[in-house]
């Protein structure tokens, strides 16, 4: 396989995870093997209080992080879940659709987190990879994967494109 990569970016709460989940649903309807991790937020009174990591191959969900209200870090990550996620991602390829939501400062800046996800994307052993990256880290992702296409979720909303379908035919998916 010589996989295509779609970098998905946009501000927090823009709909990046929603877009990934809808692509996962569409891929499953096609009978594709879907792997990787999607990060879901848990909210209380409109505030995101924890992050849950969902393995898209098995459906298993684990707590990834809890919001901290003091100290320098915004999130306290659960090391056991990071280890589990690396194990999930180590066996994520080959796949039809690989999803990584998200590769953030933990991976790009600190060299921790889901580092095996970087290797899975590097492998190209998938049809398509959806990789969520914060706007401030897009340049690092583009340096690593210069052939990747970039999708900015706010631009999608402005263009009024549907988020309930797979990426456009220009990316290579067909309805």
**Largest sheet entry:** 8 strands, mixed
- CATH class call of the domain at 4-40 and 54-60 and 93-159: Alpha Beta
Shape: globular
- CATH second-level architecture of the domain at 4-40 and 54-60 and 93-159: 3-Layer(aba) Sandwich
Averaged pLDDT, please?
85
Structural class by helix and strand composition: alpha/beta
In oligomeric terms, what are we looking at? single chain
- How many β-strand stretches? 8
The percentage of residues in β strands lies in: 25-35%
CATH superfamily of the domain at 4-40 and 54-60 and 93-159: P-loop containing nucleotide triphosphate hydrolases
Element pattern in H and E: EHEEEEHEHHEHEH
Can you characterise this structure?
It is a single chain. The chain has a domain at 4-40 and 54-60 and 93-159: P-loop containing nucleotide triphosphate hydrolases (Rossmann fold, 3-Layer(aba) Sandwich), CATH 3.40.50. It starts with a strand and ends in a 16-residue tail after the last helix. With 175 residues, the protein is an alpha/beta fold. Strand 2 and strand 3 form a beta hairpin. An eight-stranded mixed β-sheet has the order 5-4-3-2-6-7-1-8, sandwiched between helices. It has six helices and eight strands. Residues 158-166 have low confidence and may be disordered. The protein is globular, with a radius of gyration of 15 Å. The chain is 30% helix and 33% strand.
Question: What's the short version?
Answer:
The chain is α/β, with parallel strands linked by helices. 30% of the residues lie in helices and 33% in strands. α2 packs parallel to α4.
